[in-house]
Design brief:
Layout: H1 2-39, H2 49-60, H3 63-96, H4 108-135, H5 141-149
C-alpha cells in the first residue's frame, strides 16, 4: 500500500513539474508573439506588452490542466477528513445497532457504501470544479487580441 502512495506522489509531482514547464514555455513565447502580431498588423501599436502578456497567458496557458491539478490537490487534502467523518458516523450507527458483526467497519456493507459515497463525492467535486472552469474560461487568443484592440468580442 505504501508503494501505491509513493507512486501516486511521484505522479503528482511529475504532473506539477510538467505544468510548471508548460507555463514557463508559454511565458517564454509572449515576447515573440507580441512582436509577430504587431508586425502583421493584428495588434494595435498602443497595446502594451504587459496587457498582452496577461491576455496571452489567459488564452494560451495550460489553464485546464492547472484546474485539474489544483482540484486533485484539494481532493487529496480533503479525502482523509472525508474518510474520518464517514467512519465516525458509521461507528455511531454501528454502536446504536448493537454492534452487529456484518455492520462492522471493514465488512462488505461498510466498504461498499464507502466506495459509493467516495465516487459520488469525487463526481460532485469534479462537476463543481469543471463548472467553475467553464464559467471563467477565457476566449481564444484571437478574441483576446480583439478585446485588446478595442473591437467587439466574438470568435
Amino acid at each position: 500500500m505504501a508503494q501505491l502512495g509513493i507512486l501516486i506522489l511521484v505522479a503528482m509531482v511529475g504532473w506539477g513539474a510538467f505544468l510548471a514547464y508548460r507555463w514557463l514555455g508559454t511565458m517564454g513565447e509572449v515576447g515573440a508573439m507580441y512582436v509577430r502580431l504587431q508586425d502583421i498588423g493584428e495588434l494595435n501599436g498602443d497595446v502594451g506588452q504587459d496587457d498582452f502578456r496577461t491576455a496571452y497567458l489567459r488564452a494560451e496557458g495550460p489553464r485546464f490542466g492547472t484546474y485539474l491539478f489544483v482540484s486533485l490537490l484539494i481532493v487529496t487534502a480533503i479525502f482523509p477528513f472525508f474518510l474520518g467523518l464517514f467512519d465516525l458516523v458509521w461507528g455511531f450507527f454501528w454502536r446504536r445497532s448493537g454492534e452487529l458483526p456484518w455492520f462492522e467497519a471493514g465488512e462488505l456493507v461498510h466498504s461498499l457504501i464507502l466506495a459509493i459515497l467516495t465516487v459520488g463525492a469525487m463526481f460532485c467535486f469534479a462537476y463543481v470544479s469543471m463548472r467553475i472552469y467553464h464559467q471563467n474560461r477565457p476566449g481564444s487568443l484571437k478574441s483576446e487580441v480583439r478585446r485588446l484592440n478595442g473591437e467587439a468580442h466574438g470568435d
